[in-house]
Design a protein that fits this description.
alpha/beta; Pantoate--beta-alanine Ligase, Chain: A,domain 2; six-stranded parallel sheet; three-stranded antiparallel sheet; binds pantoate
């Protein structure tokens, strides 16, 4: 596996590749969720490139940028063992320039839900993802459905800016107990982890209620809230696939989204209906 830090070097390498390129952008601290993206890319593309970059512009002041888990050695090993062709690990100075044009996420969709709680977060995400796409020029790029709003905004950026990349949404990967995999799960103590399980359990309860015919989201929200009493719930909402809030669930066109704090850790999860 080749490892690159500079844009010139990775671009030179990419020019030598003869085939399709699958790209998996990450912030490191890789887990099985990332692995599933890598595996999908390996199945579908001739070459797989992973980036590891803890992007400062998507963290708000006071968030966990400084303590975001870093596992460089383990990450390199995971990528190598899973057959990644190249790993791109740039520094902040490589990616950002003091004077540069800014891309802003569309405010109607980027300042609701996650963006309401983390204003400006998606501006930072789109800024870095666009830069990474321009460096790697991937054929396909792989993103998890757990970050549903991020996925929507990236798909929207690709279609509005006519970018030449296909976005591939990938299923949420859960731990044996149902907790959606996230690098931030590393912050949880054992007891916090137990509490955090109520997030995925509440989504399961909503799913059961829907199977019995309950499609009124205010009723589903009540069921979920009841099950997450011990958590600091930031939001429980339902949206359609265009990220418009909805009050009635429609099959194949709805996503139920949850964000909650467990101790100091903020977790998100969702259910694609
Ligand atoms: O989902 C993530 O890990 C990040 O938001 C991403 C897409 C790598 C951009 O920094």
């Amino acid at each position: 596996m080749k490892i690159f830090n500079s844009i010139e070097d990775i671009k030179r390498y990419i020019k030598t590749l003869n085939g399709t390129i699958g790209f998996v952008p990450t912030m490191g601290a890789l887990h099985n969720g990332h692995l599933s993206l890598i595996n999908r890319s390996k199945e579908e593309c001739d070459f797989t490139i992973v980036s590891i970059f803890v992007n400062p512009t998507q963290f708000l002041p006071g968030e966990d940028l400084d303590k975001y888990p870093k596992k460089e050695l383990a990450d390199k090993k995971i990528c190598e063992l899973s057959g990644v062709d190249a790993l791109f690990m740039p520094t902040n100075e490589t990616i950002y320039n003091a004077i540069e044009p800014l891309i802003l996420a569309p405010s109607q969709k980027a300042y609701i839900l996650e963006g309401l709680n983390r204003p400006g977060h998606f501006d930072g995400v789109l800024r870095v993802v666009l830069k990474l796409f321009n460096i790697i020029s991937p054929t396909k790029a792989y993103f998890g459905k757990k970050d549903a709003q991020q996925l929507y905004l990236i798909q929207n950026m690709v279609s509005s800016l006519f970018l030449h990349v296909e976005i591939v949404p990938c299923e949420i990967v859960r731990d044996y107990d149902g907790l959606a995999l996230s690098s931030r799960n590393a912050y949880l103590s054992q007891s916090e982890r137990e509490e955090a399980l109520n997030i995925s359990k509440s989504l399961k309860l909503a799913s059961k209620a829907m199977m019995k015919g309950e499609l009124d989201f205010s009723k589903l929200r009540e069921i979920m809230r009841e099950n997450m009493k011990n958590l600091h719930v930031e939001y429980i909402e339902a949206v359609d696939r265009e990220f418009n809030k909805i009050e009635k669930i429609t099959l194949k066109n709805s996503i139920i989204l949850v964000a909650a704090r467990v101790g100091k850790t903020r977790l998100i999860d969702n259910l694609w209906v």
